[in-house]
Amino acid sequence: MWTDEIVEEIHQIREEYAKSFNYDLDAIFADLRKKEAESGREVVNLSRKPGLITRWSGLAKDIDGDAKVTK
Predict the structure, then answer these.
(1) For the chain, which residues make up each domain, given as ranges?
(2) Measured between alpha carbons, how far is 14 from 33 in angstroms, rounded to an integer?
(3) What is the DSSP string of 41-59?
(4) pLDDT tens digit sequence for 53-71
């Protein structure tokens, strides 16, 4: 079976990183958030915002879940 050296290296790095946090996802997530904040780069949130028009229905949904016709 053929193995890609680059992919294997990435797997090894990922394994070492996870092992350094004892495979604790909360600790890994906190570390990634810390690195993100320290990077100085703009962080963009692409999650949907309440009240936006849905693409197919043409209805806007408020936070309380009520749909309103916007056309």
Answers:
(1) 5-69
(2) 17
(3) PPP---SPPTTPBPTTT-E
(4) 555 565 555 555 555 555 4
Measured distance CA(34)–CA(29) in Å, rounded: 9
Q: Is the dihedral of CA 26, 48, 50, 58 positive or negative?
A: negative
CB 60 within 8 A of CB 70: yes
Give the tokens for residue 7.
């992919």
pTM > 0.85: yes or no: no
Query: Strand pairing partners for 53?
Result: 60
Q: Where are the alpha helices (DSSP H) in the chain?
A: 5-20, 25-38
User: Residue 7 in 3-state DSSP?
Assistant: helix
Strands 59-61 and 67-69: antiparallel
Q: Which residue has tokens 């056309």?
A: 71
Q: Is 40 left (phi over 0), alpha (psi -120 to 50) or beta?
A: left
